[in-house]
Amino acid sequence: MRAVVKAAPGKGLELTEVPTPSVGARDVLIRVHNAGVCGTDLHIWEWDAWAAGRIRPPVVVGHEFAGAVVELGPEVAAEGIFAVGDLVTAEGHIVCGDCVPCRTGNGHLCVRTQIIGVDRDGAFADFIAMPASNVMKLNGIPTEVGAIMDPVGNGVHTALEGGDVTGATALVIGCGPIGCFATGVLRAAGAGLVLASDFNATRRVLATRMGAHRVLDPAHEDVVAIAHDLTEGLGVDLVCEMSGHPAGHATAFAAARPGGRVNMLGTPAETTEVDFARDVIFKGLTIYGVTGRRMYETWIQMRRLIGSGALDPMPVVTHRFPLERIAEAIGVIKDGTAGKVILEINT
Ligand SMILES: [Zn+2]
Ligand SMILES: [Zn+2]
Predict the structure, then answer these.
(1) pLDDT per residue over 292-325, tens digit each?
(2) pLDDT band at 70; cut points 50, 70, 90
(3) Mean pLDDT, range 120-132, rounded to an integer
């Protein structure tokens, strides 16, 4: 089958032929229709310090996908949950089920997590074999949408962790695809005020498309002051910190109201200085680190949000490429002109 592979340490990725994966007793073989390209794939292409420390080539890359079930392992077939022809997506974090986080309902924090397209073969290929426990039926959602449910799920997790946001005030810092998805989720969940901030004009347009009440350009606007102005001087109930930048962190802690919440997803490349006494302790802030998606509350919530029409993530998609144009797909992410990028593999 065709696959996009990191064949050896160093820059780039190559489209090559590899054997179709074998199907274990508990596995589902999926013919990939669409896949999402994300910042992680750019890191792997660039072979930065993170990639060099984590990836053991050769590995098929890609972790966001959807497609059709083509074969079931014998134990999966006996269960009767999946059938050949089902359209599905999958959680790309494969967890052990045995560690303390797994056994306490926190599989997203599994100490033995293996990520497809990073730690084991991934989805930029004609086929992928996945454990059945990770596979989610799309229930009528198109595979193009299913292909980006992994990052949409990050947005759902970030926006909704902490509970009901009906009528709440929120600020999303960083409007890459996940920040835009979080914006859409907050609107779908009934937030009363959703502010979205990004230096990049393209991303501000995408956040507007996803329903932000007001988009802010931190290069020319005082985000913290505006967040206070629009909340009777208090600050917002919830900040979704998606930028991972020290300036974003400072804005997040200053813009949250006393007793508010900061859900942090953006991953910093460097350490951040925080005035804990002023910004966290005396403010009574709750800080939550967002890793992956809750298994499987996030997925079930998301499937209903999308399936019902309450949430449409597609306005964030700006580019589509066939598998053989993977270099261009990575290129538009690198130059900052893209929202979400989708590969059309078997469509
Ligand atoms: Zn991703
Ligand atoms: Zn585990």
Answers:
(1) 999 999 999 999 999 999 999 999 999 999 999 9
(2) very high
(3) 98
Considering every ligand atom shown, identify the ligand nearest to the alpha carbon of residue 114 and give its number: 2
Which protein residues have their CB within 5 A of the ion that is ligand 1? 38, 40
Same domain, 144 and 164: no
Q: How confident is the model at residue 88 (pLDDT cuts 50, 70, 90)?
A: very high
Closest ligand to residue 118's CA = 1
**Has residue 304 been placed in a domain?**
no
Domain with residue 253: its CATH number is 3.40.50.720
With respect to residue 297, please indicate whether it lies within any of the assigned structural domains. Answer: no
Q: HEC profile for the chain?
A: CEEEEECCCCCCCEEEECCCCCCCCCEEEEEEEEEEECHHHHHHHHCCHHHHHHCCCCEECCCEEEEEEEEECHHHHHHCCCCCCCEEEECCEECCCCCHHHHCCCHHHCCCCEEECCCECCCCECEEEEEHHHEEECCCCCHHHHCCHHHHHHHHHHHHCCCCCCCCEEEEECCCHHHHHHHHHHHHCCCCEEEEECCCHHHHHHHHHCCCCEEECCCCCCHHHHHHHCCCCCCEEEEEECCCCHHHHHHHHHHEEEEEEEEECCCCCCCCCCCHHHHHHCCCCEEEECCCCCCCHHHHHHHHHHHCCCCCCHHHEEEEEEHHHHHHHHHHHHCCCCCEEEEECCC
* Cα 99 to ligand 2 centroid, rounded to whole Å: 4
Name the residues around ion ligand 2, CB cutoff 5 A: 95-96, 99, 102, 110
Q: Is residue 250 a part of any domain in this protein?
A: yes
Q: Structural domain of residue 215, as residue ranges? A: 153-289
Q: Compute, in angstroms, the gap from residue 301 CA to the centroid of ligand 1.
A: 19
pLDDT band at 269 (very low <50, low <70, confident <90, very high): confident
One domain for residues 184 and 273: yes
Question: Which CATH number fits the domain that encloses residue 50?
Answer: 3.90.180.10
Which ligand gives the minimal distance to the CA of 101?
Answer: 2
Catalytic option among 33, 40, 169, 249: 40
Which of 16, 20, 43, 318 is the catalytic position? 43
What is the 77 CA–ligand 1 centroid distance (Å)? 29
Task: Tell whether 63 is covered by a domain.
Answer: yes
Q: Is the pLDDT of residue 215 over 90?
A: yes
Is 213 annotated as catalytic? no
pLDDT at 270 over 90: no
Q: Active site includes 43?
A: yes
